[in-house]
Amino acid sequence: MASPLSLQTSDSGTSSHMFFSELREGSTRPIMIMVYRKWDVTSVNGRYMSTDYIVTNIKGVVMHCTARNNIAHYFFDKLKEGGVYLVNGFAVQPTN
Questions:
Q1: What is the tens place of the pLDDT at every residue in 31-83?
Q2: How many CB atoms lie within 10 A of CB 91?
Q3: How far apart are CA 6 and CA 8, in angstroms?
Q4: Do residues 25 and 12 touch, judged by C-beta distance below 8 A?
Q5: 85, exposed or middle or buried, with CB in 10 Å at 0-12, 13-18, 19+?
């Protein structure tokens, strides 16, 4: 079972974090990200579905991330556009 999600504002110190190219299902090391864009996704009938993010890492690699409606409340007030974070306890899942 994955550890609880942990977010820390980065102080740009050196840590043993992964880069996006190293992410695989089952990855457990933290990643350092900058939130570039954040938006809520709703269905055509107005039902909230997720909060989505465009994030980048120090190498400039861009990734789309989704926090589905059952876990998005962990992120609402924590991840801000332009913020840099060290993220632990996340799950890497294939897209459908």
A1: 899 999 999 999 999 999 999 999 999 889 999 988 889 988 887 788 999 99
A2: 10
A3: 7
A4: no
A5: buried
Burial of 50 from C-beta contacts in 10 A (0-12 / 13-18 / 19+)? middle
pLDDT score of 76: 79
Distance CA 52, CA 59 (A): 21
- In the three-class reduction of DSSP (H, G, I as helix; E, B as strand; rest coil), residue 65 is classed as strand
- Count the Cβ atoms, other than its own, within 10 Å of residue 35: 19
Taking CA atoms, 10 is separated from 24, 32, 76, in Å, by 23, 8, 18
Q: What is the length of the chain?
A: 96
